[in-house]
Structure formats: structure tokens, C-alpha cells
Amino acid sequence: MKKWMRLPAFMAAFLLALLLPFSNAQAATLKDGTYSVNYTVLKAEGNAVSMANDYWLKPAKVIAKNGKLTVQMTIKNSSWVTEFKVPGNGGYVDTTVLSTNKKANTRLVQFQAQSLSKPIKSKIHVTVKSADYDHDYTIQLKFDESSMKSLSSNSANKSTGAQESQQPSKESTNKADTSTTKQQEENPQTGDTSQVGWLLVLVLCSGGFLARKWIIKQ
Asked: How far apart are CA 113 and CA 70, in angstroms?
């Protein structure tokens, strides 16, 4: 009886060992291109939403190129957020300001990210002189990878970085980005689903063969 109970456990462990590395590899792969992705600004610990969430406009833009991710975000009430730092060089480094819009009180920033699968801890400093408010905060940027949508192909993305840094941020630009995002089809972030199907078939066949040999030996 114990021998037959071992068989399901063996099969489950076998399938898990083969499928987990494959799914992890898929999650870490993003084809070269430009994407939009929703995100939430959380407090330093846990999943509670930070008050700062209202000042980080959504969605963010993600530029994937040669295995590297560049994230671009627009901050409103920009004059209040005097510092915005992300992990880098063993500590925290300032995000790069691409453009500012003094009239709208916004600024477009960007930073490099290793992955979007886990929340990115960041440091911000908020100063509101009229309210005598001056504080440092730690926040987390939690990305919803399921919301990721393609904004451009690889070929269209070649000059995106240069164009973003040269053009000033305007309210009309933000509206155009939002409208473009709605029209794009959702990005299949992971690999071709047919590959998963074939892998599953191979796994089941291999598992059945091994199980048969195991039963014969017993």
C-alpha cells in the first residue's frame, strides 16, 4: 500500500521540478520593445497603499532592450516630491529627470530595474513649505505585470530613448500616451503558449514511462 502511495508523490515532485524552472524563465523574459504597465505605490512594509500613490501617475512606461528594463514615470505635484531614489550602487540613487512641466507641476523620471516581478523599494522626500511639512519616506513600487501592454515593436523602439530625453513633457503628451495605451493589444509577456503545451506533453510522457518502470521494479 505504501508503495502505491509513493507513486503520486513521485509524479507530483517530477512535474514540479520540470515546470517551475520553465515558468520562472518565462516571467523573467520580456521581448525588446516599449510597454505600459500599471503599478501601485505601497508603504514601506506590507501591502498597504501609500498616500504617495495619488502623486505617481499611471500607467508607467517600460522600455525593454537587450535584457535591460528602463522604467519611466510621471510625478504630479512635482515641487512637493523633492527626492525620488531607487536601489543602485549598493544603496539608493536619484532617478533621472527626463523633463519637467512647471505649469502642470509634473516631471517625467526614469530608472533602471532588474525585474518588475517584485516590489521595488524606493526613497522619497516630501516638502510642503506652505504646511511646514518636511519628511522622508520609504515606499514600494508594486507592478501589475498582468496589465502590461505593448506600445511599440522592437524596430520602433530603437530611437525611443533619445526621443524621450529630448522632448519636453506636456499635458497633451500624457493624453496621447493614455489614448495609445488603450488601443494596443495586450502583450504576451511570457513565451509562446504552444511551447508550454509541448513541454507538458513531454513531461507527461516521460513521467508515465518512469512510473511504469518504477511499478515493474516494485
From this structure: 6
Cα–Cα distances in Å, from 124 out to 1, 69, 84, 119, 159?
A: 61, 21, 5, 15, 30
Q: Do the beta carbons of residue 53 and residue 41 sit within 8 Å? A: yes
Tens-place pLDDT, residues 150-178: 997 554 444 444 444 444 444 444 444 44
Q: Maximum Cα–Cα distance for the chain, whole Å?
A: 81
CA distance 216 to 58: 59
Find, among 120, 196, 188, the residue nearest to 148 by Cα: 188
**pLDDT tens column, 21-65:** 443 333 357 899 999 999 999 999 999 999 999 999 999 999 999
> Helix 193-217 to helix 2-27 angle, to the nearest 10 degrees?
160
Distances (CA, A) of 206 to 7, 31, 72, 199: 14, 31, 45, 10
- 41 sits in which H/E element: strand 33-43
Judge if pTM exceeds 0.85: no
Residues in Cβ contact with 209 at an 8 Å cutoff, skipping those fewer than 6 apart = none
